[in-house]
Amino acid sequence: MLRKTKEGRTLKDNLMLASSTAFVAGMTNVAGVIAFLSFTSNITGHVAMLARKIVNKEHHDILVYSLWLLLFLLGAFTANFITKSYNKRGSYRAHAVPIFIEIIVLFVVAVYGHNYYTETQLERELIIGTMLFSMGLQNGLVSTISGGLVKTTHLTGLFTDLGGELSEYLHAAKGQAGAIKQKLMIRLTILSFYLIGGIIGGYFFERYDFRIFYFIPFILLTILYYDISSVILHKSLKFLSYPFRKKQTVQI
Q1: Alpha carbon 236 to chain centroid distance?
Q2: What is the per-residue pLDDT across 111-147, written as a single tens digit (0 to 9) for each?
Q3: Is the Cβ–Cβ distance between 154 and 136 less than 8 Å?
Q4: Is residue 132 a contact partner of residue 43, using CB atoms and an 8 Å limit?
Q5: How far, in Å, CA of 148 to CA of 76, rounded?
Q6: Rounded to an integer, what distance in angstroms lies between the CA atom of residue 128 and that of residue 137?
Q7: How far apart are CA 196 and CA 201, in angstroms?
Q8: CB atoms within 10 A of CB 104
Protein backbone atom coordinates (compact mmCIF):
# COMPACT_ATOMS: atom_id res chain seq x y z
CA MET A 1 0.00 0.00 0.00
CA LEU A 2 2.82 2.43 0.82
CA ARG A 3 5.70 1.29 -1.38
CA LYS A 4 4.26 2.22 -4.74
CA THR A 5 3.54 5.70 -6.09
CA LYS A 6 0.91 6.79 -8.61
CA GLU A 7 2.48 5.26 -11.71
CA GLY A 8 3.09 1.81 -10.26
CA ARG A 9 -0.07 1.36 -8.20
CA THR A 10 -2.58 -1.36 -8.97
CA LEU A 11 -6.31 -1.30 -8.30
CA LYS A 12 -5.73 -3.62 -5.33
CA ASP A 13 -3.17 -1.22 -3.84
CA ASN A 14 -5.57 1.71 -4.07
CA LEU A 15 -8.54 -0.25 -2.77
CA MET A 16 -6.61 -1.43 0.30
CA LEU A 17 -5.27 2.05 1.00
CA ALA A 18 -8.71 3.61 0.47
CA SER A 19 -10.59 1.12 2.66
CA SER A 20 -8.21 1.19 5.63
CA THR A 21 -7.72 4.97 5.78
CA ALA A 22 -11.41 5.74 5.12
CA PHE A 23 -12.31 3.40 7.98
CA VAL A 24 -9.94 5.30 10.28
CA ALA A 25 -11.34 8.67 9.16
CA GLY A 26 -14.92 7.52 9.72
CA MET A 27 -14.17 6.29 13.22
CA THR A 28 -12.26 9.45 14.11
CA ASN A 29 -14.92 11.79 12.79
CA VAL A 30 -17.88 10.14 14.54
CA ALA A 31 -15.95 9.81 17.80
CA GLY A 32 -15.16 13.52 17.58
CA VAL A 33 -18.80 14.41 16.96
CA ILE A 34 -19.95 12.37 19.97
CA ALA A 35 -17.19 13.59 22.29
CA PHE A 36 -17.00 17.26 21.24
CA LEU A 37 -19.99 17.92 18.96
CA SER A 38 -17.47 18.86 16.28
CA PHE A 39 -16.21 17.31 13.05
CA THR A 40 -12.63 16.10 13.38
CA SER A 41 -11.84 14.63 9.96
CA ASN A 42 -12.72 17.57 7.67
CA ILE A 43 -12.85 21.36 7.80
CA THR A 44 -15.78 22.28 5.53
CA GLY A 45 -18.10 23.00 8.45
CA HIS A 46 -15.35 24.81 10.32
CA VAL A 47 -14.90 27.28 7.45
CA ALA A 48 -18.61 28.08 7.57
CA MET A 49 -18.45 28.48 11.35
CA LEU A 50 -15.42 30.76 11.04
CA ALA A 51 -17.37 33.03 8.70
CA ARG A 52 -20.23 33.14 11.21
CA LYS A 53 -17.89 33.95 14.09
CA ILE A 54 -16.31 36.76 12.07
CA VAL A 55 -19.75 38.26 11.41
CA ASN A 56 -20.63 38.02 15.12
CA LYS A 57 -17.19 39.38 16.12
CA GLU A 58 -16.55 36.46 18.50
CA HIS A 59 -12.81 36.94 18.69
CA HIS A 60 -11.90 33.89 20.75
CA ASP A 61 -13.82 31.55 18.46
CA ILE A 62 -12.34 33.24 15.39
CA LEU A 63 -8.89 32.41 16.74
CA VAL A 64 -9.88 28.81 17.56
CA TYR A 65 -11.44 28.05 14.17
CA SER A 66 -8.53 29.69 12.35
CA LEU A 67 -6.12 27.54 14.36
CA TRP A 68 -8.08 24.38 13.49
CA LEU A 69 -7.92 25.21 9.78
CA LEU A 70 -4.20 25.89 10.03
CA LEU A 71 -3.59 22.61 11.86
CA PHE A 72 -5.34 20.60 9.15
CA LEU A 73 -3.29 22.52 6.57
CA LEU A 74 -0.12 21.90 8.58
CA GLY A 75 -0.88 18.18 8.65
CA ALA A 76 -1.25 18.01 4.88
CA PHE A 77 1.90 20.13 4.42
CA THR A 78 3.87 17.94 6.82
CA ALA A 79 2.85 14.73 5.04
CA ASN A 80 3.85 16.06 1.63
CA PHE A 81 7.06 17.65 2.92
CA ILE A 82 8.18 14.42 4.59
CA THR A 83 7.30 12.40 1.48
CA LYS A 84 9.38 14.67 -0.73
CA SER A 85 12.26 14.82 1.75
CA TYR A 86 12.56 11.06 2.32
CA ASN A 87 11.70 9.92 -1.21
CA LYS A 88 15.34 9.42 -2.19
CA ARG A 89 15.77 7.02 0.74
CA GLY A 90 12.91 4.81 -0.44
CA SER A 91 9.21 5.23 -1.02
CA TYR A 92 8.23 3.03 1.92
CA ARG A 93 10.15 5.14 4.42
CA ALA A 94 8.85 8.35 2.84
CA HIS A 95 5.25 7.19 3.10
CA ALA A 96 5.54 5.39 6.44
CA VAL A 97 6.83 8.35 8.47
CA PRO A 98 3.57 10.42 8.22
CA ILE A 99 1.55 7.31 9.17
CA PHE A 100 3.84 6.77 12.15
CA ILE A 101 3.35 10.39 13.25
CA GLU A 102 -0.42 9.95 12.94
CA ILE A 103 -0.22 6.84 15.12
CA ILE A 104 1.65 8.76 17.82
CA VAL A 105 -0.77 11.69 17.70
CA LEU A 106 -3.90 9.52 17.99
CA PHE A 107 -2.29 7.40 20.71
CA VAL A 108 -1.61 10.57 22.72
CA VAL A 109 -5.29 11.54 22.25
CA ALA A 110 -6.29 8.11 23.56
CA VAL A 111 -4.05 8.30 26.64
CA TYR A 112 -4.98 11.87 27.50
CA GLY A 113 -8.69 11.45 26.80
CA HIS A 114 -8.95 8.23 28.78
CA ASN A 115 -6.89 9.29 31.79
CA TYR A 116 -6.77 13.08 32.09
CA TYR A 117 -9.59 14.74 30.13
CA THR A 118 -11.80 16.88 32.40
CA GLU A 119 -14.06 18.32 29.68
CA THR A 120 -12.81 21.90 29.89
CA GLN A 121 -13.22 24.16 26.88
CA LEU A 122 -9.46 24.53 26.40
CA GLU A 123 -8.93 20.75 26.43
CA ARG A 124 -11.75 20.30 23.91
CA GLU A 125 -10.26 22.88 21.55
CA LEU A 126 -6.75 21.41 21.78
CA ILE A 127 -7.87 17.81 21.23
CA ILE A 128 -10.01 18.76 18.22
CA GLY A 129 -7.04 20.63 16.75
CA THR A 130 -4.78 17.65 17.35
CA MET A 131 -7.20 15.29 15.64
CA LEU A 132 -7.59 17.65 12.68
CA PHE A 133 -3.80 17.72 12.34
CA SER A 134 -3.72 13.91 12.22
CA MET A 135 -6.47 13.82 9.58
CA GLY A 136 -4.63 16.44 7.55
CA LEU A 137 -1.58 14.20 7.70
CA GLN A 138 -3.57 11.20 6.52
CA ASN A 139 -5.42 12.98 3.74
CA GLY A 140 -2.28 14.67 2.46
CA LEU A 141 -0.39 11.37 2.43
CA VAL A 142 -2.97 9.21 0.66
CA SER A 143 -3.60 11.96 -1.88
CA THR A 144 0.13 12.24 -2.62
CA ILE A 145 0.63 8.47 -2.86
CA SER A 146 -2.34 7.92 -5.18
CA GLY A 147 -1.79 10.99 -7.31
CA GLY A 148 -4.97 12.64 -6.00
CA LEU A 149 -7.18 9.63 -6.69
CA VAL A 150 -7.73 8.70 -3.03
CA LYS A 151 -8.90 11.21 -0.41
CA THR A 152 -10.47 9.65 2.65
CA THR A 153 -11.19 12.24 5.34
CA HIS A 154 -14.15 14.00 3.71
CA LEU A 155 -16.88 13.02 1.27
CA THR A 156 -18.04 16.24 -0.42
CA GLY A 157 -15.44 16.02 -3.16
CA LEU A 158 -15.97 12.27 -3.36
CA PHE A 159 -19.66 12.67 -4.23
CA THR A 160 -18.74 15.29 -6.83
CA ASP A 161 -16.20 12.93 -8.42
CA LEU A 162 -18.60 10.01 -8.15
CA GLY A 163 -21.35 11.90 -9.96
CA GLY A 164 -19.01 13.01 -12.72
CA GLU A 165 -17.52 9.56 -13.20
CA LEU A 166 -20.95 7.89 -13.32
CA SER A 167 -21.82 10.25 -16.14
CA GLU A 168 -18.52 9.49 -17.90
CA TYR A 169 -19.12 5.76 -17.52
CA LEU A 170 -22.49 6.02 -19.27
CA HIS A 171 -20.88 7.91 -22.16
CA ALA A 172 -17.59 6.01 -22.25
CA ALA A 173 -16.21 4.84 -25.57
CA LYS A 174 -14.84 1.34 -26.04
CA GLY A 175 -11.63 0.82 -24.09
CA GLN A 176 -12.31 3.68 -21.65
CA ALA A 177 -15.00 2.10 -19.50
CA GLY A 178 -12.52 -0.12 -17.61
CA ALA A 179 -10.47 2.78 -16.21
CA ILE A 180 -13.59 4.69 -15.18
CA LYS A 181 -15.01 1.57 -13.54
CA GLN A 182 -11.89 1.24 -11.40
CA LYS A 183 -12.27 4.84 -10.22
CA LEU A 184 -15.91 4.15 -9.34
CA MET A 185 -14.86 1.11 -7.31
CA ILE A 186 -12.39 3.22 -5.35
CA ARG A 187 -14.96 5.96 -4.68
CA LEU A 188 -17.58 3.46 -3.50
CA THR A 189 -15.00 1.69 -1.33
CA ILE A 190 -14.10 4.97 0.39
CA LEU A 191 -17.78 5.78 0.96
CA SER A 192 -18.57 2.29 2.29
CA PHE A 193 -15.65 2.04 4.69
CA TYR A 194 -16.06 5.62 5.91
CA LEU A 195 -19.66 4.76 6.79
CA ILE A 196 -18.69 1.44 8.39
CA GLY A 197 -15.94 3.14 10.39
CA GLY A 198 -18.41 5.78 11.53
CA ILE A 199 -20.96 3.21 12.68
CA ILE A 200 -18.36 1.15 14.54
CA GLY A 201 -16.73 4.27 15.98
CA GLY A 202 -20.03 5.60 17.27
CA TYR A 203 -21.08 2.24 18.70
CA PHE A 204 -17.87 1.60 20.59
CA PHE A 205 -17.27 5.19 21.70
CA GLU A 206 -20.59 5.12 23.53
CA ARG A 207 -19.33 2.06 25.44
CA TYR A 208 -15.59 2.57 25.78
CA ASP A 209 -15.18 6.33 25.52
CA PHE A 210 -11.68 7.51 24.54
CA ARG A 211 -10.31 3.98 24.71
CA ILE A 212 -11.48 3.57 21.12
CA PHE A 213 -8.48 5.67 20.09
CA TYR A 214 -6.21 2.82 21.18
CA PHE A 215 -7.79 0.75 18.42
CA ILE A 216 -7.38 3.34 15.64
CA PRO A 217 -3.55 3.39 15.82
CA PHE A 218 -3.64 -0.42 15.64
CA ILE A 219 -5.38 -0.19 12.24
CA LEU A 220 -2.70 2.22 11.04
CA LEU A 221 0.00 -0.16 12.28
CA THR A 222 -1.44 -2.89 10.05
CA ILE A 223 -0.94 -0.53 7.08
CA LEU A 224 2.72 -0.13 8.01
CA TYR A 225 3.14 -3.87 8.58
CA TYR A 226 1.47 -4.93 5.32
CA ASP A 227 4.23 -3.54 3.11
CA ILE A 228 7.13 -4.56 5.30
CA SER A 229 5.85 -8.07 6.07
CA SER A 230 6.91 -9.42 2.67
CA VAL A 231 10.42 -8.03 3.21
CA ILE A 232 10.62 -9.59 6.69
CA LEU A 233 9.40 -12.93 5.33
CA HIS A 234 11.92 -12.87 2.47
CA LYS A 235 14.83 -12.10 4.80
CA SER A 236 13.69 -14.72 7.31
CA LEU A 237 13.50 -17.41 4.64
CA LYS A 238 16.89 -16.34 3.29
CA PHE A 239 18.39 -16.56 6.78
CA LEU A 240 16.85 -19.98 7.47
CA SER A 241 18.03 -21.37 4.15
CA TYR A 242 21.60 -20.13 4.56
CA PRO A 243 22.97 -23.27 6.37
CA PHE A 244 21.57 -25.53 3.65
CA ARG A 245 23.09 -23.41 0.90
CA LYS A 246 26.42 -23.49 2.73
CA LYS A 247 26.35 -27.31 2.93
CA GLN A 248 25.62 -27.58 -0.78
CA THR A 249 28.59 -25.34 -1.54
CA VAL A 250 30.90 -27.51 0.55
CA GLN A 251 29.71 -30.71 -1.18
CA ILE A 252 30.42 -29.26 -4.61
Answers
A1: 30
A2: 999 999 998 999 999 999 999 999 999 999 998 888 8
A3: no
A4: yes
A5: 13
A6: 14
A7: 8
A8: 12
Q: Please give the Cα distance from 124 to 118 (Å, whole number).
A: 9
**Do 41 and 28 meet the contact criterion of CB atoms below 8 Å apart?**
yes
The 10 Å Cβ neighbour count of residue 99 is 22
Contacts of 47 (CB under 8 A, 6+ apart): 69
pLDDT tens per residue across span 211-242: 888 898 888 988 888 777 654 544 454 545 55
Return all residues near 207 (Cβ < 8 A) that are at least 6 apart. Answer: none
Lowest mean pLDDT of 2-16, 22-36, 149-163, 228-242, name the range.
Answer: 228-242
CB count in 10 Å sphere of residue 209? 16
